[in-house]
């Protein structure tokens, strides 16, 4: 069997989207991918992301918000930026890592907008569920969709 791909999901704060992507990749593709996630900043793990992933049978409660600099010693093959800010400010990766952008909506921002309109907690969680499911569908295509 060929070597696993070292794949990094990069987001701004490594609190939600990149954490969900890492969780899905570990859950669905651990035979092909060594999954990591990090942020260009660290914002802590979002409890709503943990909750909706647990609903889908994926435990990310032990994850921590990781700064990209903490992974500098890992030879990353592919970096997937999952938000526009991370894509626009993606740091240089030595060794020729391929960088691919696959943007997803920001669940905390969506939930905040729902709350400001008077939406329920359940409606706010639905924004996390929507993105969780979109990320799952993307991860199911890996790694074939990213390698040359």
Automatic annotation (TrEMBL):
Keyword list, A-Z: Arsenical resistance
Transmembrane is among the record's keywords: no
InterPro entries attached to this UniProt entry: Ptyr_pPase, Ptyr_pPase_sf
GO biological process terms on file: response to arsenic-containing substance
Superkingdom, natural source: Bacteria
Phosphotyrosine protein phosphatase I domain span: 5-145
Taxonomic lineage from the root: Bacteria, Pseudomonadati, Thermodesulfobacteriota, Desulfovibrionia, Desulfovibrionales
Protein name according to UniProt: Protein-tyrosine phosphatase, low molecular weight
């Amino acid at each position: 069997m060929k070597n696993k791909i070292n794949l990094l999901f990069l987001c701004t704060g490594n609190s939600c989207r990149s954490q969900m992507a890492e969780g899905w990749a570990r859950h669905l593709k651990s035979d092909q991918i060594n999954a990591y996630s990090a942020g260009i900043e660290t914002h802590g793990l979002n409890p709503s992301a943990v909750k909706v992933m647990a609903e889908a049978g994926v435990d990310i409660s032990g994850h921590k918000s990781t700064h990209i600099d903490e992974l500098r010693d890992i030879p990353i093959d592919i970096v997937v930026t999952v938000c526009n800010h991370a894509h626009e400010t993606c740091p240089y990766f030595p060794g020729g890592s391929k960088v691919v952008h696959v943007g997803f909506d920001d669940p905390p921002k969506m939930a905040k907008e729902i709350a400001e309109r008077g939406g329920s907690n359940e409606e706010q969680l639905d924004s996390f569920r929507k993105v969780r499911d979109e990320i799952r569908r993307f991860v199911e295509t890996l790694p074939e969709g990213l390698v040359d």
